[in-house]
Task: structure prediction
Amino acid sequence: MDTRRILIINGHPDAAPARLCAALSEAYAKGALACGHEVRRVCLGSLDVPLLASQAEFDTAPPAHLAALQAELHWAEHLVLVFPLWLGGAPAKLKALLEQLMRGGFGFQTEAKGMSARLGGRSARLIVTMGMPAALYRLYFGGQGVMSIERGILRLTGISPVRDTFFGGVSTASPARRRAWLDRVETLGAKAA
Ligand SMILES: Cc1cc2nc3c(=O)[nH]c(=O)nc-3n(C[C@H](O)[C@H](O)[C@H](O)COP(=O)(O)O)c2cc1C
Result:
């Protein structure tokens, strides 16, 4: 099997290792490293992410520590984004990070003839945890908050395919169910999928 360069972003604003998102990020990395993939990791909870305030800012490069993260994304062939569902979508700090990463035409550029994607040749996996049952979010809510990241950001940059994995009922899940989730994510890591 070919090995891949994987960037794992733990997109939980809380950096505490006790969070399920931290454990899932760890499980993905474990599976990937065991199969020889190259892994780099970022923890949103430990990052300083300023809020973007204008088109003028968006058109320029981000602060140096976030430009370094753009370089990590450029290095990666596969992006893994792990985050909790907060009020139907990504936590505000994660949205702020994605806005910063897209700065300066990094992800796409608007040209006279339309949009030009800058991150083609990469794939992504979104791993999302939530309090409600995952099927309820997917079917009743249409998975909209996650879809806005999938289609409104990642696919616009040319990243494809973008796949997702939802884990619901998190607060009431038994230890055995959590273990099964971690095993499933470790397997995804092994396949770099
Ligand atoms: C501010 C906030 C908003 C939340 N909003 C939702 C929501 O809209 N839908 C949902 O199913 N769960 C919601 N939850 C529950 C979280 O998704 C759940 O606690 C999280 O996925 C657990 O993972 P963690 O241990 O990594 O934090 C919310 C939790 C918080 C703290």
User: Anything to note?
Assistant: Helices lie at 20-34, 55-58, 64-75, 92-101, 134-139, 144-154, 175-191.
